[in-house]
Amino acid sequence: MKGKDLEHVLAELRQDPRFIACVTAWHHFPATPGSYLDIPDDLHPALKQSLANKGIEALYSHQRQAYDLVRQGENICVVTPTASGKTICYNLPVLDAILKDDGVRALYIFPTKALAQDQLAEIQDTAKQGGFKVKGFTFDGDTPASKRRLARETGQIIITNPDMLHQAILPHHPRWAKLFNSLKYVIVDEMHNYRGVFGSHVANVLRRLKRICAFYGTQPKFVLASATIANPGELALNLTGERVTVIDRSGAPTSEKDFIFCNPSGPDGDGAVHHSAINAAARIAARFVKKSIQTLVFARSRMSCELLVQYLRDSYPNEFEKHRIQGYRGGYLPSERRAIEKGIREGDILGIAATNALELGIDIGGLDAVIMAGYPGTIASTWQQAGRAGRKQGKSVAILISGGSPLDRFIVNNPDYFFAQSPEYALINPDNPYILGQHVKCAAYELPFNHGDAAPQKLGQTGVEHILEHLAEQKILHKGATKWNWSSDSFPAAGISLRSATNENFVIIDTTHGSDVIGEVDWASAPMLIHDQAIYMHGGQQYHVIKLDYHDRKAYVKQVDVDYYTDANLAVGVRVMAVDDLYHSTNVKVNFGELIVTALATIYKKLKLYTNENIGSGEISIPEMNLHTQGMWFSLSQDVTEGMDPHSVGGVLSGIANVLLNVAPLFLMSDKRDLGVAVEVRSVYDGRPTIYLYDSYPGGVGLAEKTFKMLPGILQASLDLISSCPCTKGCPGCTGPEQQVGEGVKRLAVKVLRSITQEARFDQPGDYRET
Fold first, then answer.
1. Which of 44, 69, 585, 746 is the most buried (most CB within 10 A)?
2. Top-level class of domain 2-30+255-420
3. Contact in structure between 409 and 271 (CB atoms under 8 Å)
4. What's the pLDDT tens digit per position in 489-513?
5. Domain ranges of the chain
6. DSSP string across 517-545
7. Buried (b) or exposed (e) across 677-690, using 16+ Cβ within 10 A?
């Protein structure tokens, strides 16, 4: 019945002139058959029985290949689409080894706690179906003390996340001696998630893991699993330090799917009027939900997620079943998340608005429709999110709705580019000195570093003697006759966050009926989301922030029901601390060096729901944040801005910076959130109009340095994007709306970029773009 209802809604959409006018692509992917191989003869009988009871009579070809290679002692990386059965690729050889030798231990690493819980349930079900027992435990921040002790003493499979491995397992390895003495397999799932800053940290955590394993005399094999990316072997090597065999030909069947691209631009075709992707997603999702078609809507932010929940509930016809519309994002309590996951699996929840927290492989069963309210940021993530629909046989649909960013508009308006491209490269830099130095401290705390001619000081394959010497000068290490020993009272892992620059989250306390903790917000987001008088949204409920206790990292809120939300303005300033390199041409001077970036939330606006009408504002009183980082900046000569109205220069710089921030990740293959931009009409550094692009991570991770080297190509791509945008005066898809950046900014931005890029070549080292 669902299939007929889905076809009915799709037919309605085809006949809706308002919807069809926005469609830039409607691709149909037919179902494809699977490729199967026999279940291995040497598989333990209990596992054969388990597979039989689950109705599995044969393995997909990639599952059988993975089993055979792991049994042969190889490190492998499985790279196949969503819902292709990657879990069996590692569970089968691991459980087989444990059933044949109960002394075998395995460590499973997932990027989130929710995935770890999901995997434990899968292992327990496999054991139940086969009539055997396996001692599997999750080990995360929610694990009670009694179970932590059992996990250490009896666990055959420990399922954790990089943060717990970093802070709670490796520093206390003597308590985990039973695990490390017998560790045979390390499973790293969702490998594509480990890129940029996070991936660079995780690579160093795995280096520390291998160092401890060597101390205990074990050399575990790695089994990695990933969504499709361009460089799985390279990423696996950089993460683990081991060469792997890549399995990238999926034997899983695929179901029929329609993939629709939608650009909800204004009725005159001019991007200057751009309807909200959130509003469009809510309207389209409501069509599916009203027909009881289970629908997942991905949003790019927590705020957008909560707005979608409210909009969908407002449109749901049955007043008594609005609980069937739920949100899912970071900041929800674990009990909330698990109840929502269960509701999705069992079909009790019809409409889900989620951030990319649901992009990863949490088991939520088969969904019929996925709507992406904005481009997810990478081609790989787009396919991953689209793959959430059609997990079971039967037709499904995925709809990508363009947001207002330049990259969104470029992708949706150039669908052939998207469908012809392979997914991006996932890049990390484990040897970044800022990240490496932090993990050398952790490694030295865990085990002494030897020194001497026969014992080079390394973490992984990287020499770290200079870091050890520096730590000794700071009295953190003591350099003895043969070893570098830890001599500080500090616990280094506690001060290092793998996921953000700081480890100081704000707790949200609901005072409506007492004092209940309902969630948390990271330090960097707090000034924008939970300042005094903000409307904070959680679980579809609005909360008024009564007080933000900045010192104690607490926000006190009360439930309200209002017709607006709040949006804060952030003022960014830049100070140049040092110039490490530079090059120039006639019209532009390009620098790379150290910056201090200050960010201060200044005012907030009250915006009406649905219309975004500004109905009021207020001041924000929060201390400014300081970021010491690496950055590149380029300043324009007087000739470039000659004849330009001085009042227009700031808008032109802001418009170009807006495009740069969106285009640069296509070259750097990084997350947009790893970068920041700022502009100055008259730079304090050299008095010229200047655009800054900097790493959003303290100390930097090398992204600004790559931008410095590749700037000519990035500027050319920025010019191409602005020039090809169909708007006439500027829009969110290029330089920004004219009413925000100023009159004539698009035309002037094109003029500025042409004056820079038309020169034969910058006088600079290296190529325009890395290959």
1. 746
2. alpha beta
3. yes
4. 999 998 888 875 445 678 999 999 9
5. 2-30+255-420, 36-247, 433-486, 506-562, 571-601+623-757
6. EEEEE-TTTHHHHSSTT-EEEETTEEEEE
7. bbbbbebebeebbb
